[in-house]
């Protein structure tokens, strides 16, 4: 693999990282609007407001950047990058299609993904602390507690798939996939997806940014481009979560005509899941903070442990 | 609520169904809204009807109607009579930054000088410019729609009902008189025969 | 066993020169300097939270060092456990117990010399140990020796007992943490029975004050 | 013990260092992206600092007290629990890749069940102690 090829793949990942979240965001605008009987943005770009988020990006770049007087300047300014970059790195290793249609194969696969995604917590904590705002700090603590609580079921559910496939490499897992894995790993898929949703702080798990209680959590003091980067990291997170769920639980590129259209299957499944993320957001109200924590520890983790036991027993029985 | 999670599924179904339905959004600047009659857009003034009785200004809860007037003496038509005085309107202005669109002024006006106009696009860039003088209020008169037709099932207006009652009474009396006359005529004929 | 040792890299002294370092070695040294610098700043800075954040840099640099030594699994364990949870735990603790922005002179304890002595002593011990143990041996980095699978094979063929003992240790830590965290307010707060979900309770009932 | 060096693994396709060089390269590209966007931002944005703008935002009224509020310690317990369980969970991954391989099988499965069993007891203990619930 020469340098040019690697460079191209990296740039491709960056482009995907910038485009796919915008697509998800625009879909959210429209889906949410229609689910509420509205039309959503209709003007930017001409056709049904397709360029709304591009226009938003242009606007954000021109916005003033306010750092509160009491804030810790450097940490405050660094936080959005810390929150954003892990998702970029993770996107590199998610396989899209068979035969090397992936940014880069990393042997540690899921383990790499989960470890790197865990760094994002630091961004929120830094943002919340450096803002010198009690609401921000409260939001940061909630974010951190939530991310840590839900990271665990994600790890356990991912481990269940790794057990089934006997590898932690993401293309290796998709290669080993059979259709009956879907029912076999159903509980794990539910746990993984739900925990991922909570980790992204999407409704109904958006207590850390509950606007009616703590304004916008850790991001209260952010303006302009830095705020936009936090939002971008949220939508990139949706893409990564849905891509990972597709790869781990839904068989990635497997489907009819997988030789030619494998990448399309991955994209279709990813966007179907992204639609579910948006759908859940529109449908359900926010969970209370204690319900949120209890749900992770008393529902998802026992379920994930049960899935681990099930996977282990069946795997040993069939081998 | 038998199966656990059925409530959650129901919620999902509701949002999905709404998404499939037609939206209710009106694309306002492109498509003008279809306003119902009696829309409270802005208050128009029919200056000719105003007698400067000041009822509207006094009843306004926000005190947003400003009226200036002076008295004018009309020369008496008849040399024996006293000269008549009449109020002449100098200024009639409504401050729409204060107005809360309660419509009390329209209700209390005894001479039908104030009307609701459906015109709602009268935004200004400065709040002080929202005090509109009588010329502007008069212009809005042209946008006042004709009063909507009465509901066919509604109760009859009092005046018509009274007139009808009187007419019915007259008609009944006339019919009774006619009947009496006819009876008398037949009795006469009978007496003759 | 010998296969595994071979996989872990040859420890034989090899004919390598210090004068023609490979790219990996250069990166290793640079990252090492970065880690050292971050660690020094971390212990000398007078801002509490900054110290924790510099610790993040130091630990992250260590993860990169592991990666450069082909210890892939350990590197990501480092990221997941140290960056993702231990440092977050430290930050958490600092933020819960009032971590002011700016310098915090009152958090300075007077035993700098003692700390310096202990740090220097442990550093000297470690350096002596490592230098003495490996001398001029070179690790062969051509094959990836620290993959998840190899770690698993090694762990479950040779180190099962320590692994099981670890679970007991973790359990003890867990129980200890819970006991410590509940010893202060234990018993005073009337909690409902665990595991039961209370429903339909009117919010007017005198419960604890809402947090924010 | 059957194991394949990574370079020969068809799923991996490339060498170990190449893979992480790509990750490193992407990290550099990501940092560049952030730097470039902030440079553009610096060139385009206005700077009009007023004292009101630099105040902490608290629902539009003047901030009360300082930027720190007393928070419940409960969050901390979750963080602590996570550290312990994360250490547990990472052992699942090396185990997951080998337990079904030849020479491991049921015995390794039982070993892991014992390991997880201990942790599950811990979780149950925390649950019974009411640490996981607030109300």
UniProtKB/TrEMBL annotation, chain A:
InterPro entries: NADH_UbQ_OxRdtase_su1/FPO (IPR001694). It catalyses: a quinone + NADH + 5 H(+)(in) = a quinol + NAD(+) + 4 H(+)(out). One of its GO terms (biological process) is aerobic respiration. GO terms for cellular component: plasma membrane. The keyword NAD applies. GO terms for molecular function: NADH dehydrogenase activity; oxidoreductase activity, acting on NAD(P)H, quinone or similar compound as acceptor; quinone binding. The chain crosses the membrane at residues 6-25, 78-97, 109-131, 152-173, 179-198, 227-250, 262-283, 295-318. It is a multi-pass membrane protein. It is found in: Cell membrane; Membrane. NDH-1 is composed of 14 different subunits. Subunits NuoA, H, J, K, L, M, N constitute the membrane sector of the complex. PANTHER family: NADH DEHYDROGENASE SUBUNIT 1, NADH-UBIQUINONE OXIDOREDUCTASE CHAIN 1. Belongs to the complex I subunit 1 family. This is NADH-quinone oxidoreductase subunit H. It comes from Kitasatospora phosalacinea.
From TrEMBL, chain B:
The keyword Transport does not apply. The keyword Iron applies. Residues 41-70, 90-119 form the 4Fe-4S ferredoxin-type domain. GO terms for molecular function: 4 iron, 4 sulfur cluster binding; iron ion binding; NADH dehydrogenase (quinone) (non-electrogenic) activity; quinone binding. It is found in: Cell membrane. It catalyses: a quinone + NADH + 5 H(+)(in) = a quinol + NAD(+) + 4 H(+)(out). [4Fe-4S] cluster 2 binds at residues 60, 99, 102, 105. Its EC number is 7.1.1.-. NDH-1 is composed of 14 different subunits. Subunits NuoA, H, J, K, L, M, N constitute the membrane sector of the complex. This is NADH-quinone oxidoreductase subunit I. It comes from Kitasatospora phosalacinea. The gene is nuoI2.
Automatic annotation (TrEMBL), chain C:
It is found in: Cell membrane. This is NADH-quinone oxidoreductase subunit J. It holds the Pfam family Oxidored_q3. It comes from the Bacteria. Keywords: Cell membrane, Membrane, NAD, Quinone, Transmembrane, Transmembrane helix. One of its GO terms (molecular function) is quinone binding. The lineage of its organism: Bacteria, Bacillati, Actinomycetota, Actinomycetes, Kitasatosporales. Its EC number is 7.1.1.-. It comes from Kitasatospora phosalacinea.
TrEMBL record, chain D:
One of its GO terms (cellular component) is plasma membrane. Its EC number is 7.1.1.-. InterPro entries: NAD(P)H_OxRDtase_bac/plastid (IPR023043), NADH_UbQ/plastoQ_OxRdtase_su3 (IPR000440), NDAH_ubi_oxred_su3_sf (IPR038430). It is a multi-pass membrane protein. It is an enzyme of class 7 (translocase). GO terms for molecular function: NADH dehydrogenase (quinone) (non-electrogenic) activity; NADH dehydrogenase (ubiquinone) activity; quinone binding. The chain crosses the membrane at residues 20-40, 75-93, 99-127. Keywords: Cell membrane, Membrane, NAD, Quinone, Translocase, Transmembrane, Transmembrane helix, Transport. It catalyses: a quinone + NADH + 5 H(+)(in) = a quinol + NAD(+) + 4 H(+)(out). It is found in: Cell membrane; Membrane. NDH-1 is composed of 14 different subunits. Subunits NuoA, H, J, K, L, M, N constitute the membrane sector of the complex. NDH-1 shuttles electrons from NADH, via FMN and iron-sulfur (Fe-S) centers, to quinones in the respiratory chain. The immediate electron acceptor for the enzyme in this species is believed to be a menaquinone. Couples the redox reaction to proton translocation (for every two electrons transferred, four hydrogen ions are translocated across the cytoplasmic membrane), and thus conserves the redox energy in a proton gradient. Belongs to the complex I subunit 3 family. This is NADH-quinone oxidoreductase subunit A. It comes from Kitasatospora phosalacinea.
């Amino acid at each position: 693999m020469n340098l040019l090829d690697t460079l191209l793949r990296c740039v491709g990942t960056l482009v995907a990282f910038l485009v796919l979240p915008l697509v998800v965001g625009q879909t959210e605008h429209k889906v949410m609007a229609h689910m509420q009987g509205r039309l959503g943005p209709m003007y930017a770009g001409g056709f049904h407001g397709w360029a709304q988020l591009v226009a938003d990006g242009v606007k954000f770049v021109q916005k003033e950047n306010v750092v509160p007087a009491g804030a810790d300047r450097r940490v405050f300014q660094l936080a959005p990058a810390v929150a954003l970059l892990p998702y970029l790195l993770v996107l590199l290793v998610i396989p899209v299609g068979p035969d090397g249609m992936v940014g880069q194969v990393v042997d540690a696969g899921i383990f790499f993904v989960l470890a790197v995604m865990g760094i994002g917590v630091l961004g929120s904590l830094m943002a919340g602390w450096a803002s010198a705002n009690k609401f921000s700090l409260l939001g940061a603590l909630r974010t951190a507690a939530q991310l840590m609580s839900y990271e665990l079921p994600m790890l356990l559910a991912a481990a269940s798939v790794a057990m089934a496939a006997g590898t932690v490499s993401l293309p290796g897992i998709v290669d080993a996939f059979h259709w009956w894995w879907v029912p076999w790993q159903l509980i794990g898929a539910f746990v993984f997806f739900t925990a991922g949703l909570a980790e992204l702080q999407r409704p109904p798990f958006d207590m850390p940014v509950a606007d009616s209680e703590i304004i916008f959590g850790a991001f209260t003091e952010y303006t302009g481009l830095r705020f936009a980067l936090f939002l971008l990291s949220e939508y990139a997170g949706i893409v990564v979560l849905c891509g990972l769920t597709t790869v781990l639980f839904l068989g990635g590129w497997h489907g009819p005509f997988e030789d030619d259209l494998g990448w399309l299957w991955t994209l279709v499944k990813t966007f179907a899941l992204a639609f579910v993320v948006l759908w859940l957001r529109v449908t359900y109200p926010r969970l209370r903070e204690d319900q949120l924590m209890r749900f992770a520890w008393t529902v998802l983790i026992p379920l994930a442990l049960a899935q681990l036991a099930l996977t282990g027993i069946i795997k040993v029985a069939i081998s | 609520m038998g199966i656990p999670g059925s409530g959650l599924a129901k919620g999902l179904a509701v949002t999905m169904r709404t998404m499939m339905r037609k939206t209710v959004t009106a694309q306002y600047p492109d498509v003008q809204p279809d306003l119902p009659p009696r829309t409270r857009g802005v208050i128009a003034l029919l200056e000719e009807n105003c007698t400067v009785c000041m009822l509207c200004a006094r009843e306004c809860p926000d005190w947003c109607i400003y009226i200036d007037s002076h008295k004018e003496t009309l020369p008496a038509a008849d040399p024996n009579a006293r000269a008549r005085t009449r109020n002449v309107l100098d200024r009639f202005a409504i401050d729409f930054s204060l107005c809360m669109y309660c419509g009390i002024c329209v209700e209390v006006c005894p001479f039908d000088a104030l009307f609701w106009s459906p015109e709602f696009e009268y935004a200004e860039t400065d709040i002080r410019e929202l005090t509109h003088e009588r010329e502007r209020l008069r212009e809005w008169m042209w946008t006042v729609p004709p009063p909507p037709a009465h509901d066919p099932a509604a109760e009859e207006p009092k005046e018509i009902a009274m007139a009808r009652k009187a007419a019915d009474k007259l008609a009944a009396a006339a019919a009774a008189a006619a009947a009496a006359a006819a009876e008398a005529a037949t009795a006469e004929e009978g007496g003759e025969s | 066993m010998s296969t595994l040792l071979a996989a872990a890299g040859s420890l034989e002294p090899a004919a390598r020169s210090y004068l023609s370092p490979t790219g990996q070695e250069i990166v290793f040294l640079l990252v090492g300097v970065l880690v050292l610098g971050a660690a020094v700043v971390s212990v000398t800075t007078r801002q509490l939270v900054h110290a924790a954040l510099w610790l993040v840099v130091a630990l992250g640099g260590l993860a990169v060092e592991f990666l450069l030594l082909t210890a892939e699994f350990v590197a990501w364990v480092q990221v997941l456990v140290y960056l993702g949870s231990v440092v977050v735990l430290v930050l958490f603790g600092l933020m819960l117990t009032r971590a002011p922005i700016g310098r915090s002179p009152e958090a300075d304890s007077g035993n700098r010399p003692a700390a310096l002595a202990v740090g220097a002593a442990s550093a000297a011990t470690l350096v002596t140990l490592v230098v003495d143990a490996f001398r001029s041996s070179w690790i062969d980095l051509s094959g990836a020796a620290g993959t998840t699978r190899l770690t698993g094979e090694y762990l479950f063929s040779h180190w099962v007992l320590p692994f099981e003992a670890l679970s007991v240790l973790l359990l003890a830590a867990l129980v200890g943490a819970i006991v410590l965290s509940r010893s202060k307010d234990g018993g005073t707060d009337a909690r409902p029975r665990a595991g039961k979900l209370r429903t339909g309770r009117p919010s007017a009932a005198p419960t604890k004050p809402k947090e924010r | 013990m059957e194991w394949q060096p990574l370079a020969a693994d068809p799923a991996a396709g490339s060498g170990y260092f190449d893979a992480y060089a790509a990750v490193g390269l992407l990290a550099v590209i990501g940092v560049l992206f952030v730097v470039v966007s902030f440079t553009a931002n610096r060139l385009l944005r206005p700077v009009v600092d007023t004292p009101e703008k630099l105040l902490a935002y608290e629902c539009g009224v003047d901030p009360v007290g300082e930027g720190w509020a007393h928070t419940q310690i409960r969050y901390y317990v979750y963080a602590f629990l996570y550290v312990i369980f994360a250490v547990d969970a990472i052992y699942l991954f090396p185990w997951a890749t080998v337990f079904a391989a030849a020479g491991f099988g049921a015995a390794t499965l039982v070993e892991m069940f014992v390991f997880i069993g201990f942790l599950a007891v811990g979780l149950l203990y925390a649950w019974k102690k009411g640490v996981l619930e607030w109300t």
